[in-house]
Design goal:
The complex is a heterotrimer.
Chain A lengths: L6 E10 L27 E8 L4 E6 L5 H9 L8 E9 L2 E2 L5 H7 E4 L12 H11 L4 H15 L14 H13 L5 E5 L7 H16 L3 E5 L12 E6 L2 E7 H6 L2 H7 L22 E10 L6 E10 L3 E5 L6 H8 L7 E6 L2 E2 L2 H7 E4 L12 H5 L7 H13 L15 H14 L4 E5 L7 H16 L3 E6 L2 H7 L2 E4 H6 L1
Helix pairs in contact in A: 3-4, 3-5, 4-5, 12-13
Chain B lengths: L14 H28 L2 H27 L4 H15 L5 H15 L9 H25 L1 H8 L5 H7 L1 H4 L1 H33 L3
Helix pairs in contact in B: 1-2, 2-5, 2-9, 3-4, 3-5, 4-5, 5-9
Chain C lengths: L1 H5 L11 H17 L3 H17 L3 H18 L7 H22 L3 H9 L5 H31 L5 H6 L1 H29 L18 H23 L1
Helix pairs in contact in C: 2-5, 2-10, 3-4, 3-5, 3-10, 4-5, 6-7, 7-9
The chains are: A alpha/beta, B mainly alpha, C mainly alpha.
């Protein structure tokens, strides 16, 4: 797979004609999210990048800084699929990306996005990996050979006959990678590839990227969890408000202190909580208790077994563990979405039925799009309840507490991911729920975003609610948790 | 690689339009299938006539409005009629194919004109053609297989009884009532859908 | 490549081109509309079952056969109103549906490649591919939406839905529409990058192409359905 071609962006500026295309780029504090965006403003400006073959460039920056736009410029979608005005030139193998035929573009560039659901077209793993090759009209015997190579490199060669819907998120991501590299592109673009992966999954992915880099593939990665890419990265490019504000080689990036990365809004592995994390709350602490609870899914016989845990009011309990250890299953039993097969769930010693748990709890799903229904943020906060003066006052208090007052009239679907999350948290704050579960709240968030999530969790806990955070993000667990329930340890015990 | 900018102003369908078309038509089909199953479980066939005729368009029209508004190009209505016809054809009813073709042609003629798919009233009016075509999928078997079920049911019923049973799907006044119920359901569904379109889709600037 | 070759079972024991399945479906469907007697309908279903089984879909064939038997039995009961008529109509729909299962159980890759050889428009082929894709995503999306509604506690019980049907519909409608619009956007972008718009000449790792087997199969199916129709005329 060796090649000498490069990607070059020469003084590229771009702005979207359609404001709704910016939904992936908006952040909590940007001009865009506040509705003050004017269509003549650029989304990215004066971008100059030169990415040689066999190198790895990591784009970093706060949400809304333009990382996704730069990736879209390289793969040629910005200005075509996403209408907009572009100046400057983007060269791929020395040719303007707009002049590449669809065939050459598919051959040259492989793309892996954050969410595998938005890039799978077929039913089985083998069919999915072969898809691009078949579109290119590749001879079937060559297709079979290339599929096998890509599957072996990505570690999914035993899964070729499996249905995509039955894979774990880590497996899906590896299939997406295999599908992107099957036609041997010289350029591979990855948009937050580790956001849904645990530590082991991320390490596995990075090893594969290292192998691709050795084979001469130019890697361009957009990420928030940056330090794990140190073994493969050659350059870190920091974007701020659509411009390149800083560049670091590996040595310089490694030498950045926690304070310096915080200034940039980036994550740093040494980020610490001010308070000490305890494993177990005091025995007589008020809250919910889970004793020897078992729930195994009938079809797979996987789930949780004999789990005992405490979830005190007024504190944040983190449920962590690798993918597949049962974190979400535990939370589902806790909120009454699943009936425990053994054990009990109690509140201050009194057993809680499933119905009672459902009434007293609130579950914020990882994808909050499934839980937004109203036409405005203000309506969302009081949805389904009898609106009286007391509730109105509480609702405004909730909006103020989560910095949403200016967005009260906005449609929730028009907000950024972080803002949507805050809307749901404000709704939880306003509700009568005393136990609130957040499922992977920092997936795809930068350092600043993660600090915000920690802040909001604390806000909820200050209202004497029991906040439960499910995460495989070790940094979030360190920052947010008063108590830790580590399912990996419980399983080993 | 030619740029496909400002796709909403082109009359040619782009990839996004195709995917939007498929996903929303599938949603409509799933909704109708679920509603039909529930309806069949709760009601006898002669009573489902009175419920399904307005319930199905009531549920489906809000989704159709979003699709029509989002794509906004010729072929949305005819394509929707054809895709449903293809589904019914593969469900075991090859007779649906010619009915779908006729319905698609009439539907697209009804929607002829510039920007018709952004006029909510016209979209709702056009969608009534969709449901009239759907109604005929139900009527045709009673005509086509008449001899077959006459023969089979003659054990228990005489010809006059069978004729009375199927009157709802073969006699003109009943057929007109069915179409009127379809129209009513589509109009009410359209009113609801129009409200949702403005309140959600256009306000959020997703479409 | 053994795993992928094993999935070649999608071509079935007969290893037919997808278009041959389409032809078989239409032939069985046409005759199904023309025959009247129960005996011939049963023979047609038996043939359709054999066809599906020979194409490696034994479980689907068994299921359709069981459905046919149940409905056949029900059609003999003296049920009031339109039931009898309904069941007889369904009896005539099951044989073509059974045959059609042979086509729909194929990989989208094989179907797209076969239809591409008829020079059908690329966007039509993409639509076909997306039907398969969305058909598996949509139930998941709908279940997630229902789960989301439950987990937010908007309707603590089913009675709440009955009391507020408009709100319930809006809670289902809004996220489904938003997710669908977003999904169609994301998948369309991905489709461009995966080369779906390249044009004709796509290939498939599955067998696509007419061989002697297809000719023989077309002959057998035509003879069988014609024979069943003729049997009715004779009897």
């Amino acid at each position: 797979m060796r090649g000498t071609e490069t990607v070059a962006l020469k003084n590229v500026s771009f702005y979207y004609l359609d404001e709704s295309e910016l939904s992936d780029e908006t952040s909590a504090d940007s001009e865009v999210s506040a509705g003050r965006y004017e269509s003549t403003e650029s989304c990215v400006q004066d971008i100059c990048l030169n990415i040689p073959a066999g190198s790895c460039t990591v784009l970093c920056g706060r949400s809304g800084s333009g990382k996704s736009t730069v990736l879209r410029l390289i793969d040629g979608l910005a200005g075509t699929f996403f209408p907009g005005e572009k100046s400057g030139v983007v060269l791929v193998h020395g040719t303007d990306v707009f002049d590449l035929s669809p065939r050459n573009r598919t051959k040259s560039i492989g793309v892996v996005t954050q969410d595998p659901r938005s890039q799978f077209f077929m039913g089985t793993v083998g069919d999915e990996i072969a898809f691009s090759l078949e579109n290119l009209g590749t001879d079937p015997s060559d297709t079979i050979k290339f599929v096998q190579e890509a599957a072996t490199l990505s570690g999914v060669s035993r899964l070729l006959a499996e249905k995509l819907t039955e894979l774990s998120s880590g497996q899906k991501q590896r299939v997406a990678l295999a599908a992107a590299i099957a036609n041997r592109p010289q350029i591979l673009i990855l948009d937050e590839p580790t956001s849904n992966l645990d530590a082991e999954g991320s390490q596995s992915l990075i090893k594969i990227l290292g192998e691709l880099k050795r084979n001469g593939v130019a890697l361009i990665i957009s990420e928030h969890r940056l330090h794990q890419f140190l073994p493969v990265a050659d350059e870190f490019v920091y974007l701020q408000e659509g411009r390149i504000a800083a560049r670091w080689d590996v040595e310089k990036f490694t030498s950045l202190s926690e304070h310096e990365t915080a200034k940039f809004g980036l994550r740093h592995p040494d980020m610490k909580s001010d308070s000490e994390i305890k494993s177990y709350p005091a025995k007589d602490a008020d809250g919910w208790h889970m004793t020897d609870v078992t729930y195994l899914y009938p079809s797979t016989k996987r789930g949780i077994k004999g789990i005992t845990a405490e979830f005190p009011f007024g504190s944040v309990t983190v449920i962590c563990g690798e993918n597949g250890t049962g974190k979400t299953t535990l939370a589902k039993v806790l909120v009454g979405a699943a009936r425990e097969q053994r054990g009990i769930v109690a509140r201050n010693g009194k057993h809680l039925s499933r119905k009672e748990r459902r009434l007293l709890s609130y579950f914020v799903m990882q994808d909050v799009d499934y839980q937004l229904y109203a036409g405005s943020v203000a309506d969302e906060v009081v949805l389904g309840r009898q609106v009286d003066d007391a509730l109105k006052a509480r609702a405004w208090e909730a909006l103020a507490a989560f910095g949403l007052t200016d967005l009260a009239d906005r449609h929730p679907a028009s907000l950024s991911g972080g803002q949507k999350q805050r809307v749901i948290l404000a709704t939880a704050y306003c509700s009568d729920a005393e136990l609130i579960v957040l499922d992977e709240p920092t997936s795809g968030l930068d350092g600043h975003g993660m600090h915000e999530v920690v802040h909001w969790c604390r806000k909820l806990a200050s209202e004497k609610k029991a906040v439960v955070v499910i995460t495989h993000d070790e940094l979030l667990a360190q920052l947010a948790g008063d108590y830790i329930v580590d399912l990996s340890l419980q399983k080993r015990d | 690689m030619k740029a496909e900018v400002e796709s909403s102003k082109n009359t040619r369908w782009v990839m996004r339009d195709v995917l939007t078309f498929v996903i929303f038509n599938l949603i409509i089909m799933i909704l109708i299938t679920v509603a039909k199953v529930v309806e069949d479980m709760l009601l006898a066939p002669q009573n489902t006539f009175f419920v399904g005729s307005w319930l199905f368009p009531l549920l489906a029209t809000p989704f159709y409005l979003v699709m029509a508004d989002r794509i906004g190009k010729r072929g949305v209505l005819s394509g929707s009629i054809l895709i449903f016809g293809v589904l019914y054809t593969f469900m075991g009813g090859p007779y649906c194919a010619p009915v779908a073709i006729v319905g698609a042609v009439i539907g697209e003629l009804v929607m002829w004109g510039k920007d018709s798919y952004h006029d909510i009233k016209r979209v709702i009016g056009g969608y009534i053609v969709y449901w009239v075509t759907f109604g005929f999928y139900g009527i045709i078997p009673y005509v086509l297989f008449r001899e077959a079920y006459m023969k089979q049911l003659e054990t228990y019923y005489n010809a006059a009884d069978v004729t009375a049973m199927i009157a709802q799907y073969t006699e003109l006044p009943w057929i007109l009532l069915m179409m009127a119920l379809f129209a009513a359901g589509t109009i009410v569904g359209g009113l609801i859908g129009s409200k949702f379109l403005k309140k959600h889709v256009r306000k959020a600037k997703i479409a | 490549m053994n795993d992928m070759e094993e999935t070649d079972i999608k071509c079935g024991l007969l290893g037919l081109d997808p278009r041959t399945h389409l032809l078989s479906f239409f032939l069985v469907g046409i005759v199904s509309m023309l025959i009247v007697n129960l005996l011939e309908t049963v023979l047609l279903q038996a043939f359709a079952t054999a066809y599906l089984t020979a194409n490696g879909r034994t479980r689907s064939a068994t299921r359709t056969c069981v459905s046919f038997t149940v409905i056949c039995g029900l059609s003999f009961l003296p049920l009031p109103g339109l039931y009898g008529v309904l069941f007889v109509s369904m009896l005539h729909m099951i044989p073509p549906f059974t045959t059609g299962c042979a086509f729909f159980s194929l990989s989208p890759s094989a179907i797209m490649c076969a239809l591409d050889r008829w020079h059908l428009p690329q966007k039509f082929l993409v639509g076909i591919c997306m039907i398969f894709r969305f058909a598996s995503i949509l139930p998941f999306e709908m279940r997630s939406i229902l789960r989301g509604i439950r987990m937010r506690g908007i309707f603590p019980s089913l009675l709440g839905i009955v009391r507020h049907p408009a709100l319930a519909y809006e809670c289902f409608y809004t996220p489904l529409v938003m997710r669908s619009l977003r999904l169609s956007n994301e998948l369309a972008a991905s489709a461009e990058l995966r080369g779906i718009g390249i044009g004709t000449g796509r290939t498939s790792v599955y067998h696509v192409g007419f061989t002697l087997r297809d000719a023989m199969c077309a002959l057998v199916v035509t003879a069988a359905v014609a024979g069943i129709y003729a049997l009715e005329a004779v009897l």
